[in-house]
Amino acid sequence: MQVITKSLPRSTSWISTSVPEHQIQTEQAKSFNSSYLVNNLISPVRFYDAVQKIPPKAIVIEIAPHGLMLALLKRSLHAESECVSLMSRKESDNLQYFLSNIGQLFTLGLKLDLKKLYPTIEYPIGTGTPMLSPGIKWDHSKEWAVPSWEQFLPDNSISSKTIGEWNIFILPVT
Fold first, then answer.
1. Do 36 and 15 meet the contact criterion of CB atoms below 8 Å apart?
2. What is the 3 state secondary structure string of the chain?
3. Which candidate, 22, 122, 161, 168, has a CA 20 to 30 Å from the CA of 68?
4. How sure is the predictor about 100, in pLDDT bands with cuts at 50, 70 and 90?
5. What phi and psi values does residue 84 have, to the nearest 5 degrees?
6. Is the bond preceding residue 124 a cis peptide, omega within 30 degrees?
7. Which whole-number Å values give the CA distances from 2 to 34, 57, 121, in the listed order?
8. What's the whole-number average pLDDT of the chain?
């Protein structure tokens, strides 16, 4: 378990259900730190007050270990708003669920820096780095006719000549 030692400024678009309106300008309300988390755990949930602050056409991200409030949020938000939860206890693969919902946020128009999901690549890359190609599976159950570029030319419009190992194609100028 890690202890949160650094205080980070919260975004102005972060709406908290644990900080009452008259305390919104306090240092505790402006920062994300261990003090905020403790307050969040011991304070009453002010869900109605928080939902009233959400503007129409908003994208709401529920940050919780389970999307417990997702159904209630969807009913409480404006019709044009979207709501996404990043975890669900019902899912057998929460990583897949998380990444799927990150993709949903992208399709809703959020500009995401996906590089932050992956470790920084140090160059030169070591010889033990796993390759991507073994993870790719091709479906060879169907065969498709692939036309050659010569099939798109009118008859007798092309001639070829072999010089050494090279085939030289001569196209008439029209």
1. no
2. CCCCCCCEECCCCCCCCCCCHHHCCCHHHHEECHHHHHHHHHCCCCHHHHHHCCCCCCEEEECCCCCCCHHHHHHHCCCCCEEEECCCCCCCCHHHHHHHHHHHHHHCCCCCCHHHHCCCCCCCCCCCCCCCHHHCCCCCCCCCCCCCHHHHCCCCCCEEEEECCEEEEECCCC
3. 22
4. very high
5. -135, 135
6. yes
7. 11, 36, 25
8. 81
pLDDT at res. 161: 59
Phi, psi for 173 (deg, rounded to 5): -85, 130
**In this structure, are residues 17 and 47 in contact, taking their beta carbons and an 8 Å threshold?**
yes
Query: b/e map of 62-97 (b: 16 or more CB within 10 Å)?
Result: beeeebebbeebeebbeeebbbbbbbbeeeeeeeeb
Tell me what the mean pLDDT of segment 76-103 comes to: 89
Per-residue pLDDT band at 72 (split at 50, 70, 90): confident
In degrees rounded to 5, what are phi and psi of residue 105? -60, -40
Cα separations in angstroms, 100 against 35, 74, 93, 117, 137 = 32, 19, 11, 13, 21
- State the Cα torsion 83-14-93-65 to the nearest 10°: -110
